[in-house]
Target: SUF system NifU family Fe-S cluster assembly protein
Amino acid sequence: MSFNNLDQLYRSVIMDHYKKPRNKGSLDENSVTIDMNNPTCGDRIHLTLKINDGLVEDAKFEGEGCSISMSSASMMTEVIIGKKVDDALQLADIFSKMMLGEDYSDKYDLGDVEALQGVSKFPARIKCATLAWKAMERGVQAESK
Model:
């Protein structure tokens, strides 16, 4: 597959998650709630996580922002649901490395998340892509205290 075709595929995946976000909404009051924003561009996220016995049982988000920010939140919720908290944190670390253009482990199937790897070429957009992931890290760390 040529670079242009791959780039177009990735754009399609991003726009699909933006237009039809997965796991949009919120969970009940027994969930971990995290609100974060990116003051640089105005993206904001309200993330709720249901964590039970070290497992991310469910994740929902609401928010406003660019296609990168909102599609990243959609993709992130898909990939962490059903994962152990430690695995979710490992995925966040892998995503962070991917955003910095570093080599990252292929131990985990990132699924649609890999469509965001091109964001690393646009430093101003990295904060958009990582907002949901930073919220998730903050939420699971708060839950473990």
